[in-house]
Each structure stands twice: as C-alpha cells, then as structure tokens.
UniProtKB/TrEMBL annotation:
PANTHER family: SUFE-LIKE PROTEIN 2, CHLOROPLASTIC, SULFUR ACCEPTOR PROTEIN CSDE. Pfam families: SufE. The lineage of its organism: Bacteria, Pseudomonadati, Spirochaetota, Spirochaetia, Leptospirales. It comes from Leptospira santarosai. This is Fe-S metabolism protein SufE. Belongs to the SufE family. Residues 13-130 form the Fe-S metabolism associated domain.
Amino acid sequence: MSSIAEVQKEIVSEFSECTDWQERYQLLIEMGDELGSIPDSVKTPERLVPGCQSRVWILAEEKNGKVEFQADSDSAITRGMIALLIRVFSGRTREEIKNASLEFLKEIGLDKHLSMSRRNGLYSMVNILRNS
C-alpha cells in the first residue's frame, strides 16, 4: 500500500493534468462516481456529518488495526470530496490518520475554489474521519 504522502502526490498529479476548474470539478465528480454506495440502512442521523451543506454519511470499521471507511452523499461534488479523503485515509491506522498532513487540498487548490459552506463541510468530513 502506498503511503499517505504518495497517495496525495498521485492526487495532485491527476488534478494537475486538468487545464481549468471545470475539468477539475468534472474529475472530482468522476471520483465520486467511483465511490461505492452504502446501504440505506446505515444512512442514519448518527452517521451524518454535521456542518455540511449536503447530506454526507460516513461509516468507519476497524479491521486488524486499520480503519476502513465507506461514505455516501446526496451531492456529486461532495461525493467526490469524500472519495478523495477516503482514498487518502482508508486502510490506515488511527495514528496515521490523526497525524496526516493534508497538503494536497491546498496543492490542488480545492480549498480556495469551494464556497464557504462547502469548505466548512470538507473540514467537518476531515474531522469525522480523523476521529472515527
């Protein structure tokens, strides 16, 4: 498995191939499309991410000391954002997740191209993943 830093570099590389923000949003939506859905039975209020404009559910399961994440959202862009975070965090130990620096968000410019409410939602998702 690639390190968190390596996965972030891969993401930055993928986004750097896009020529404008329209293409980057399209890439984000495509990444969200690749995210498997979670059953409606686990889309409970307890799993909803607070502070998100869209509804986002996150499910975390620890297996052999590693945390595996699943998520779903009713928004295509938000689904893409959570897909990126899961790609970085899933399959890691809790310590790796808590200590990870998420520089790729700044490097791809995502944090600057989101509305304030989406940016708040993004950081709420990060906090939920870090504390799951």
